[in-house]
Amino acid sequence: MSTITEHADASPATIARLLVDELDELTDELVDRILTGEHAYQESTLITAVELREAVHANLDSVLRQLSGEFGDDLHAARATGRLKADYGFPLAAVLHAYRLAGRLVWDRMRAACAERPELLPDIGADVWRIIDDYSTAAAEEYGRAVSERTTRHTELLQVELRALFDGVLEPGRLHTAAQMLQLPTTGTFLVVCAESAAAPGAGVGAASGAGVGAAPGAGVGVGVGAASGAPDAAGARGPFAGIDRRLRDGLVAAHWMSDVHTRIGLLSLSSPHALPQVLDLLHAEADGRVGISAPFTGPLGARDALRQAELAMASLIPGEAATETYGQSALPLALAHSPAAARELRDAVLGPVLALPAADRDALIATVRAWFDCGGSLAATAARLHYHRNTINHRLRRIEQLTGLDRSDPRAAAQLYVAVLADRLFGRD
Fold first, then answer.
1. For the CA atoms of 174, 177, 182, 186, what is the dihedral angle to 10 degrees?
2. Who wins on pLDDT, 252 or 207?
3. What is the pLDDT of residues 85-134, one digit of tens each?
4. Are 305 and 217 in contact (CB under 8 A)?
5. 94, 13, 17: which is closest to 52 by C-alpha?
6. 212 pLDDT exceeds 60?
7. Nearest alpha carbon to residue 243 among 230, 225, 228, 229
8. Average pLDDT in the chain
9. Residue 185 near residue 269, CB atoms below 8 Å
10. Three-state SS at 319
11. CA spacing 20 to 30 A to 361: which of 7, 104, 152, 411?
12. How many CB atoms are closer than 10 A to CB 82?
């Protein structure tokens, strides 16, 4: 290459135009430097020699033409390179190192060309490294976008498979593919968790999974594209069990989650059946609302029925309380949760005259009989809990007997009254 002294209009742009004429030679040299100086390119079997050379050629051409003033800040080549390297899984550090090697090559050539005009060096250096910095930044930003898009696509595919399991539409022939994608064993120990979001209405049944208890098992799981393995999902970072995944992983438990506006649903894969007590303790400790847990099951295809169990277990808990319930643990609340409409009918039939009272009288009487049951039928304990005299408690209980026609000393009558009060507590009033 000739030196700048041969040109009367010596300037950094002049040198750059001279280098454009040597673009093929520069491309070959830079490819050699990249392959020599960056192990990621040496070891890669994904990107071909032709693709690497084309990317190098396009970037050098663009850099030199910007230095020569032929066109403005066109960063298309840098963005294309960032996306290509992200798609091939190259480390970002290797991509940025390649741009530094390009900057060093261009700088060395331009500095050699103006060896007899050292006053041009500051401007040349400033222009070269400014443009290389712009290209590195553009490539890194596009690299990040490509990785984010790929992660989003992967998460969406995970959600499709997870939703198919919960909806019960995953054919057995697809089980192996779905299990591989979700990194789940085809046999093992599994749980489904249904956790009520803080924003969920206190109505109880019907909030679970957007389907409502009483619908077909797992039908209409109203999940949006959410998260698997702890990524932010439709419930947001502050949804139920938002920070539990790391602690589950510490116990060798894998978790996949999806959410709707009312619940967060999780499929948990335990490393061993012996981990079950630890997982249940962790779920209980982390619960900030109602949480239903299925019975353990042995294969991913059982997720549909397990979701139904978890929904029912959640619906058998008292709205507004932070508690966990495993399916089958409490028979009577679970029986009511199986048929909330029938439970409400029973409540109205037994407590109708009480519910018809003015709100203050109604609430006082129901709170009293509820506390009486909670205290095992002890007047003294009920009075202590409610901070009233025993005579006041006894008077209220007698009034309930008069209104309902049920004698609390009769076990069958007391059972009816208890179930009605429990149904009122679980499902509230329309």
1. 70
2. 252
3. 888 888 889 889 999 999 999 999 888 888 777 888 888 888 899 999 99
4. yes
5. 94
6. no
7. 230
8. 83
9. yes
10. coil
11. 411
12. 29
**Token pair belonging to 335:** 């029986």
Rounded to two decimals, the pTM is 0.62
Higher confidence at residue 5 or residue 333?
A: 333
Look up residue 411 and give its two tokens.
Answer: 């076990």
Average pLDDT of the residues in 35-51: 77
Q: What is the mean pLDDT of residues 1-17?
A: 63
- pLDDT of 183 > 70? The answer is yes
How far apart are alpha carbons 287 and 241 in whole angstroms?
7
Distance (Å, whole) CA 317 – CA 290: 6
Phi, psi of 127 (to 5 degrees): -70, -45
Are residues 101 and 37 in contact, defined by beta-carbon separation less than 8 angstroms?
Answer: yes
- Provide the pLDDT for residue 291: 95
Q: Looking at residue 9, what is its pLDDT?
A: 58
What is the pLDDT at residue 243? 76
Complete DSSP assignment for 14-61: HHHHHHHTTHHHHHHHHHHHHHHH-HHHHH-SSS-HHHHHHHHHHHHH
The DSSP bridge pattern shows strands 323-326 and 290-293 to be parallel
Cβ proximity of 83 and 142 under 8 Å:
yes
- The neighbouring-strand residues paired with 331 are none
| Strand bridging mode 189-196 / 263-270 | antiparallel
Average pLDDT over every residue of 240-259: 84
- CB distance 141 to 82 below 8 Å: yes
Most confident of 22-31, 65-74, 154-163, 235-244: 22-31
Q: 225: Cβ–Cβ under 8 A, 6 or more apart, which residues?
A: 155, 156, 159, 234
Q: Which residues pair with 195 in a beta bridge?
A: 264, 291
In Å, how far are 177, 274, 298 from 185, measured between CA atoms? 11, 17, 10
Whether 223 contacts 265, CB under 8 Å: yes
Contact 33, 101 (CB under 8 A): yes
DSSP track, 130-193: HHHHHHHHHHHHHHHHHHHHHHHHHHHHHHHHHHHHHHT---GGGHHHHHHHHT--SSSEEEEE
Alpha carbon of residue 259 to chain centroid: 8
| 96/92 Cα distance (integer angstroms) | 6
CB of 54 closer than 8 Å to CB of 27: no
